[in-house]
């Protein structure tokens, strides 16, 4: 893959991952709003913990989808030999851990870096979402 192709395809997959994250975080927000009245009628602990648990479940699911998407990319492109390696590399790269035991060749280095950028941005967006949610939950709890 040329440098331009790596940048274009990396940007496309990053964009797909962000679209997935935005759609599912929006659904998460709607689901929490739908569940909020039911949780208000429960014990205080559940009213606080419920939205946080729901959001965390959505976030884990969202990140898992993104890791699988990148693993599919590695397998469909015949970059890695098996699903175990593809998932492992995808997860290690997405989390920016990067052990270095599996390394992409020079024609894919920039493209592979987009998986790390995807993870960095996804974790940042998820963290901001959780902070906003917890701020709202605690604000509502303090007012009640």
TrEMBL record:
Q: Which UniProt keywords apply?
A: Membrane, Transmembrane, Transmembrane helix
Q: Which residues cross the membrane?
A: 12-33, 45-73, 85-104, 111-134
Q: Name one Pfam family in it.
A: Ion_trans_2
User: What SUPFAM superfamilies has UniProt attached to this entry?
Assistant: Voltage-gated potassium channels
The coiled-coil regions, if any, are: none
Question: Which InterPro entries does this chain map to?
Answer: K_chnl_dom
Q: Which residues form the Potassium channel domain?
A: 63-135
Origin superkingdom? Bacteria
What's the protein name?
Ion channel
């Amino acid at each position: 893959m040329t440098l331009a192709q790596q940048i274009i395809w990396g940007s496309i997959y990053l964009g797909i991952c962000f679209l997935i994250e935005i759609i599912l975080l929006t659904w998460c927000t709607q689901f929490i709003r739908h569940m909020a009245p039911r949780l208000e009628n429960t014990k205080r602990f559940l009213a606080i913990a419920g939205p946080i648990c729901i959001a965390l479940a959505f976030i884990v699911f969202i990140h898992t989808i993104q890791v699988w998407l990148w693993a599919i990319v590695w397998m469909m492109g015949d970059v890695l030999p098996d699903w175990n390696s593809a998932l492992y590399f995808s997860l290690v790269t997405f989390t920016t851990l990067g052990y270095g035991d599996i390394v992409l060749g020079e024609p894919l280095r920039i493209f592979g870096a987009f998986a790390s950028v995807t993870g960095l941005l996804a974790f940042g967006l998820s963290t901001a979402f959780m902070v906003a949610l917890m701020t709202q939950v605690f604000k509502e709890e303090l007012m009640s």
